[in-house]
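Example for tutorial group B:
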């Protein structure tokens, strides 16, 4: 039987489980889980950092727009590997000039893109700049899908 902090098999693929073990605080209010345990024989998908650029290279100056587009780009990349947000085990988010407002916006957009239920493990890294001028957000992912 799973604890209340573990993810039920009904909400996640059998390829992995997201777990928030007793003895650690409940991170769900902050939009992530502590552990992602991947089953052996699972197909792993590594997605390079996705920024807020559109397919034609346009980059909004608005932070929320960049986060939203980066998550759309992440979904597009996952789909190319026959995966989706429900397969994501690990995210790494990079935020230029990070602050509480930007954290809140990221959380809202993550909930919008990933839906209800437990979120993947996540590390947020504040940075002074990213690869392109004007780039404010980047997200990379590791997904686990059935082989």
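The residue assignment follows.
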């Amino acid at each position: 039987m799973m604890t209340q902090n573990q993810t039920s098999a009904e909400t996640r693929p059998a390829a992995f489980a997201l777990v928030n073990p007793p003895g650690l605080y409940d991170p769900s209010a902050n939009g992530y889980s502590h552990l992602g345990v991947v089953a052996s024989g699972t197909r792993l998908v590594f997605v390079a950092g996705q920024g807020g650029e559109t397919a034609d290279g346009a980059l909004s100056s608005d932070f929320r727009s960049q986060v939203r587009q980066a998550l759309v780009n992440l979904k597009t990349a996952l789909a190319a590997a026959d995966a989706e947000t429900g397969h994501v085990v690990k995210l790494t988010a990079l935020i230029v000039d990070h602050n509480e407002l930007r954290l809140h916006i990221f959380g809202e957009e993550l909930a919008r893109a990933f839906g209800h239920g437990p979120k993947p493990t996540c590390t947020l890294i504040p940075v002074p700049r990213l690869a392109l001028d004007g780039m404010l957000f980047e997200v990379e992912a590791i997904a686990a899908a059935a082989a």
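The mean pLDDT is 91. Compare this with the pattern of hydrophobic and polar residues in the output above.
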